[in-house]
Structures are given as structure tokens and as C-alpha cells.
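Supplementary Methods. Inverse-folding protocol.

Structures were first reduced to a C-alpha cell string of length 206. This string, shown here, constituted the complete conditioning input.
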């Protein structure tokens, strides 16, 4: 899936909504230290930018060079390309070494990952026992009773995984609780982000 969004990386940057600032404050409150965070599948850096408000340094990695070329610059963020043929040892060294990361974040991207490989990397780089892995996604677009059924039908018929939420929820049920202690961030399901009409029309940016 490395090149899936390469051709429309600029549209992806414009079309993706940001996440609420309160969400990142909740995540930061989960880790006792705020030295280093790793944003995996960072894309254009939309999550990394907000994580950087709470952590001294953020490493944003992605398999897409095109996405990284459009990543939002920030003095506390270092973006790095991680091609599919990169070894685990190279990734660990790139991120900062074993037991070095306070927070690992994945924003609406975990459904693309080789999960066993990813879990192994996370278990090695997270600080023990206080390191945190945070994975989240969108739960849907709500506009109006007229628009919403049309959007739901479009997502179901045309997206590779249908709507993204069931895919990620299924991943969590099948895998997360076997490898990591799972905690729900308080009120996470009630967290909302707002899209402009222009963003909602850029569906090819997702």
C-alpha cells in the first residue's frame, strides 16, 4: 500500500481533517515522561504536529516519500522514510533505540500495517513499563439526515475496507488485547473533529 496515496499527496494534505487538541492532551497525560514520541504512518504529519506540543521530540515515519515531501515542518519533528524493505533493527535505530519512546501514535493508519511486525517494533522501542501505544481512527462523517445515508453507502461500496471503523475495531478485538494492556481514553468516543465542506469533497485524499 506504500504508493496508494502518492499521486494525490497534496490533496490528502488539504482533505484530511485535524484532530481535536483535547485528544492529544489526554494522550500526553498517560505518559509520565514527554521526551520522545513516534508517529507511525505519519503521512502529512497532521498528528505529529499536535503530538509535538506535548513531547520534546517527535519522529514521524511513513512508507510514502511523496507524503513526507508534503509533511508539515516543525522544529521538534524529524520526518523519516521507512521503505518496505527496511529492517527492524534499522527502524529501531532510526527511532531512537530500544526502551526509548514514551508514546507511539497511529492516526487512522493501523489497518495498513503488518501487525506482527509492528507489534514487535512497538514492544522493543516503548519505555517499560510506562510507554503507551495510542491507536485511533475516525468513526464517520455526520452532516445531515439526508447526506449521511449517501455517504455511508459510498464508503461501504467504494472503500477497500468498507468503512474504516469496523476494520480497525476488528483489528483491536483480534490482536491488541493479546499483546498489550488495552485502556480506553475517557470520553474518546465523544471526541469530535470538524470538516469544511471542501474537505468532505476531497474523498480521494483519504
Amino acid at each position: 500500500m506504500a504508493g496508494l496515496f502518492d499521486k494525490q499527496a497534496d490533496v490528502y494534505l488539504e482533505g484530511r481533517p485535524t484532530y481535536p487538541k483535547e485528544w492529544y492532551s489526554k494522550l500526553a497525560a498517560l505518559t509520565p515522561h514527554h521526551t520522545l514520541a513516534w508517529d507511525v504512518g505519519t503521512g502529512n504529519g497532521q498528528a505529529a504536529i499536535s503530538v509535538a506540543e506535548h513531547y520534546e521530540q517527535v519522529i514521524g515515519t511513513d512508507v510514502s516519500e511523496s507524503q513526507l515531501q508534503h509533511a508539515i515542518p516543525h522544529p521538534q519533528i524529524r520526518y523519516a522514510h521507512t521503505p518496505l524493505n527496511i529492517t527492524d533493527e534499522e527502524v529501531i535505530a532510526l527511532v531512537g533505540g530500544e526502551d526509548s519512546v514514551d508514546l507511539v501514535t497511529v492516526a487512522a493508519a493501523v489497518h495498513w500495517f503488518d501487525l506482527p511486525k509492528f507489534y514487535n517494533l512497538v514492544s522493543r522501542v516503548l519505555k517499560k513499563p510506562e510507554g503507551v501505544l495510542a491507536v485511533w481512527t475516525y468513526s464517520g462523517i455526520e452532516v445531515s439526515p439526508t447526506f449521511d445515508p449517501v455517504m455511508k453507502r459510498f464508503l461501504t461500496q467504494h472503500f477497500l475496507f468498507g468503512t474504516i471503523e469496523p476494520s480497525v475495531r476488528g483489528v483491536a478485538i483480534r490482536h491488541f488485547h493479546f499483546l498489550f494492556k488495552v485502556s480506553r481514553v475517557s470520553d474518546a468516543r465523544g471526541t469530535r473533529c470538524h470538516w469544511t465542506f471542501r474537505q468532505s469533497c476531497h474523498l480521494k485524499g483519504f
